[in-house]
């Protein structure tokens, strides 16, 4: 009740016109441009204390310009490494406040979906829809207006595979799926159009699509390039012999090359970059990999930087401008567990999913040690095979009177070994004040709910 009263008071104050204080230091009578320049040197705590002086200063110190520098150094604040703002509609000060919950691991667990039999789903987020694989189907669910739950009835069902869907991506209003039957399926999101064709001799482990080009990797030790054009579906452009089963694949944002992550059994390097136009090997990344150090997940952050993780328990950050023989940064899983998946906010935050006990770790990429970990104690032998992060709709549901919740965005989605999909947003409802010491914030409580993992996944070498 006290939090609700305080929020109503702040909203009422925001509606009232607040002029400059008539009395006080001469500093407040300076032009606003000079005040902005002076206040731009203040840190988060100083700005917070200054906002407590009067209504005018509270409104003045809420200016996005004063918080932008702080937000770019915060975790999951909506700014990429290059400075692109992904949440322009949300006040920057609010993002800095919520970023403290990401840093300290304050979260709430929400169950989005349940299913009865053991499944190993793949997921994709697209706007207000969640696409998730169930056996040989792909189901599309729409988020409800509160952003904290899904409509029970699927928005769409996409079929076509004879065996389980191993992987799928969304691109150009299409769903491109890879199946255990060795086939690639292409489905139009807003129609019943479906095409499938035989792509590999064994199961297709991974697929990616950008710019009208599809790349796929398989257990049959090949990677292939396909066109997405309607008149050329199923026509293989290039077949690449990788000498290893392919676990992960990703196309460069420049659409000139793609990278494959292999099992590292038949070739000394599990990470190789291939020319997308000719199919020729351009370079391989790293050296001195032990046998079996397969790469299970790889993703481009920019045309020249990418992240990888896998069996050797390391997350590696590669910068092709610096060196292709050695990564520029690496983080080791403390418990020597295989890393199945990774996800990043495009700046400082990094999340990884481990192979045992449903462990999810959050990392600040400026530090060697992880920030914190969460796990399900009942998830023995269960790994986290997929993490999805959405940082587009970072809004609080203002229609909720006392417990506003994060609207779908800036959250992690992962499958759970108890046959559920869970949404893990930070606690946006707590009235955390980052300018106060943690011990004095009595209204900020850390959630005791662990972050669960997915059902058991076995990927034999």
UniProtKB/TrEMBL annotation:
Give residue ranges of the WD repeats: 197-232
Task: Provide a GO CC annotation, any one.
Answer: SCF ubiquitin ligase complex
Q: Where is the F-box domain?
A: 24-70
From which residue to which does the signal peptide run?
none
Give the matching PROSITE patterns: FBOX (PS50181), WD_REPEATS_2 (PS50082)
Compositional bias (Acidic residues): 1-11
Described by its record, this protein's role is as follows:
Probably recognizes and binds to some phosphorylated proteins and promotes their ubiquitination and degradation. Likely to be involved in key signaling pathways crucial for normal limb development. May participate in Wnt signaling.
- In Swiss-Prot or TrEMBL terms, this protein is called F-box/WD repeat-containing protein 4
Origin species? Camelus bactrianus
């Amino acid at each position: 009740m006290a939090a609700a009263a305080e929020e109503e008071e702040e909203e009422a104050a925001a509606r009232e016109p607040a002029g400059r204080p008539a009395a006080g230091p001469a500093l407040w009578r300076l032009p606003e441009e000079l005040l902005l320049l002076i206040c731009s040197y203040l840190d988060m705590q100083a700005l917070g204390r200054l906002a407590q002086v009067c209504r005018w200063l509270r409104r003045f110190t809420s200016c996005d310009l004063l918080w932008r520098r702080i937000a770019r150094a915060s975790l999951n604040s909506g700014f990429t490494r290059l400075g692109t703002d992904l949440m322009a509609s949300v006040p920057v000060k609010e993002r800095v406040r919520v970023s403290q919950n990401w840093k300290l691991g304050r979260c709430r667990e929400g169950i989005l979906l349940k299913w009865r039999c053991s499944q190993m789903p793949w997921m994709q987020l697209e706007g207000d829809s969640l696409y998730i694989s169930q056996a040989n189907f792909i189901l599309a669910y729409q988020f409800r207006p509160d952003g904290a739950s899904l409509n029970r009835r699927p928005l769409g069902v996409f079929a076509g595979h004879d065996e389980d869907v191993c992987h799928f991506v969304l691109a150009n209003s299409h769903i491109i799926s890879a199946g255990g039957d060795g086939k690639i399926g292409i489905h139009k999101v807003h129609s019943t159009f479906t095409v499938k064709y035989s792509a590999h001799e064994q199961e297709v482990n991974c697929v990616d699509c950008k710019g009208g080009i599809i790349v796929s990797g398989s257990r049959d030790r090949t990677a292939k390039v396909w066109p997405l054009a309607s008149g050329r579906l199923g026509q293989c452009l290039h077949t690449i012999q990788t000498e290893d089963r392919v676990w992960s694949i990703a196309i460069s944002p420049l659409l000139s090359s793609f990278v494959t992550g292999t099992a590292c059994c038949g070739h000394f390097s599990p990470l190789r970059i291939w020319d997308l136009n000719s199919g020729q090997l351009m370079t391989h990344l790293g050296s001195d990999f032990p046998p079996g150090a397969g790469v299970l997940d790889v993703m481009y952050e920019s045309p020249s930087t990418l992240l990888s993780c896998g069996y050797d328990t390391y997350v590696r950050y590669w910068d092709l401008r610096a060196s292709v023989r050695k990564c520029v940064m690496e983080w080791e899983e403390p418990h020597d567990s295989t890393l199945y998946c990774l996800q990043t906010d495009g700046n400082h935050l990094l999340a990884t999913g481990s192979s045992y006990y449903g462990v999810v770790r959050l990392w600040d990429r400026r530090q060697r040690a992880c920030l914190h970990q969460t796990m399900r104690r009942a998830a023995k032998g269960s790994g986290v095979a997929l993490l999805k992060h959405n940082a587009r709709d970072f809004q609080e549901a203002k229609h909720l009177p006392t417990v506003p919740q994060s609207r779908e965005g800036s959250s992690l989605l992962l499958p759970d070994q108890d046959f559920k999909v869970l949404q893990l947003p930070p606690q946006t409802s707590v009235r955390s004040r980052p300018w106060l010491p943690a011990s004095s914030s009595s209204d900020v409580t850390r959630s005791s709910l662990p972050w669960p993992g997915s059902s058991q996944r076995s990927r034999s070498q």
